[in-house]
Design brief:
Distance between the termini: 36 Å
Shape: elongated
Number of strands: 19
Number of helices: 13
CATH architecture of the largest domain: 3-Layer(aba) Sandwich
CATH topology of the largest domain: Rossmann fold
Largest sheet: 8 strands, mixed
Number of domains: 2
CATH class of the largest domain: Alpha Beta
């Protein structure tokens, strides 16, 4: 099951109008994905004369629906409208602009537009005479007054040997507008981010284990934000629901040793490593194959689990390494500083988990510390916001 938790905005509906410039949106789609967006394509029927559904499915990695009357029981125009964080229509033809300006909803794309509250970005592409026509000028003006973003077309060569205003804009210009709409940049393109999450469990017998209350939400938030910023992301998560996150490699593990093996296999190629997982410090020396009766459960001989952060840090070369410390007590901050130094971390986030605070919550509060950073207090905020702060620090460290 694909999950999209913590409100990280990445979903773009890409509408394709019926103009010759439709082929240029193939590159736009690829660049949107490079910048961390998840894209669903809705081509108009007329646009299929230029680029077919198979091409859009291959490039987006998602099924493409072209007809309002397919899969009616799923009410696709409503579900897609609710899911979209932005709608980009490129190319937007004179006819499509007119229909949107009039509020018509006579195909799947215009139904999604009129049902959505997401920002709408139109990328006009047409002959000069059509762009300068009084009706088109009035429609564009009306749409802009309603808050629709209409990118001015470029000047240059058009089809049929003509030249003038009306040319499909450069892909970079469109991407810049989309990123400004989302208020974020794809500043981790090409970088590899490795994240640990969740709480490891060590079996005592088939029904009992040594573990902790970690839910994995913070690590998921980091993985999602890294992917949204264009990174290649691997998430190693312990004992969380069987999730799969689009464009993120998710490795499910149970024990500390399994987590170390998965992280170790991906560490050397990583640029940023964020260790949010709560790892059980010890494990039973022997794990019973049968349930131990209550009367026999009097003592458990324990072994220390491997020091995952310490093991990885000993091989650290170019990586930016971020650790987490769940602490309690008056000396929690001094303990966090000791861990920062002893584990050779670049940054560490310390939170006070007294009385079970933070675990399982969508919010967090604590302190970010670093060798070249004054202690940064984080008041109660979402785990998604903390993820963005930590990754921004990592980017600055990467230079």
């Amino acid at each position: 099951m694909s999950q999209h938790p913590l409100g990280v905005s990445r979903e773009v509906v890409l509408g394709i109008g019926g103009g010759i410039a439709a082929y240029k949106s193939c590159d736009l789609l690829r660049r949107l994905k490079d910048h961390g967006f998840l894209v669903s394509v809705i081509p108009t029927r007329s646009s299929l004369n230029f680029v077919g559904s198979a091409t859009w499915e291959a490039l987006s990695g998602r099924p493409v629906q072209t007809d309002l009357w397919n899969n009616v029981h799923e009410v696709p125009h409503i579900s897609m409208a609710k899911k979209a964080d932005a709608i980009v229509i490129a190319p937007a033809t004179a006819d499509l602009i007119a229909r949107i300006a009039c509020g018509r909803a006579d195909d799947l794309l215009t139904n999604v537009v009129i049902a959505s509250n997401a920002p709408i970005i139109l990328v006009p592409a047409m002959h000069t005479e059509m762009w300068l026509n009084e009706a088109t000028v009035a429609n564009v003006e009306a749409l802009r007054k309603r808050g629709v973003i209409v990118i001015d077309p470029a000047v240059g060569d058009l089809s049929s040997g003509d030249s003038g205003v009306g040319r499909y804009p450069e892909t970079k210009e469109i991407i810049d507008v989309v990123e400004n709409t989302f208020n974020r940049k794809a500043d981790l393109i090409g970088k590899k981010v490795l994240v640990s999450a969740g709480g490891t469990r060590e079996a005592i017998d088939p029904v009992r284990y040594i573990g902790n209350l970690s839910s994995g939400k913070q690590g998921i938030a980091v993985a999602l934000d890294a992917a949204a910023r264009g990174a290649i992301v691997t998430l190693v998560i312990a004992n969380a629901p069987e999730i799969s996150i689009e464009d993120v490699e998710v490795i499910h593990v149970v024990t500390a040793e399994q987590m170390l093996a998965a992280l170790d296999a991906n560490f050397d190629s990583a640029d940023v490593v964020v260790m949010t997982a709560a790892v059980a410090d010890v494990r039973p020396k022997l794990s019973a194959s049968q349930k131990i009766s209550k009367s026999d459960l009097t003592s458990i001989e324990l072994l220390h689990n491997p020091d995952i952060i310490g093991t990885l840090a000993s091989r650290k070369r170019h990586q930016v390494l971020i650790g987490f410390a769940a602490q309690t007590g008056a000396d929690r901050l001094s303990k966090a500083h000791e861990k920062l130094v002893s584990k050779h971390l670049d940054f560490l986030y310390m939170n006070d988990v007294s009385n079970g605070a933070i675990f399982g919550s969508d919010e967090t509060e604590g302190v970010i510390i670093g060798s070249s950073l004054e202690d940064l207090d984080i008041p109660m905020t979402s785990k998604a916001t903390l993820a963005r702060k930590l990754l921004t620090l990592a980017i600055d460290k990467l230079g």
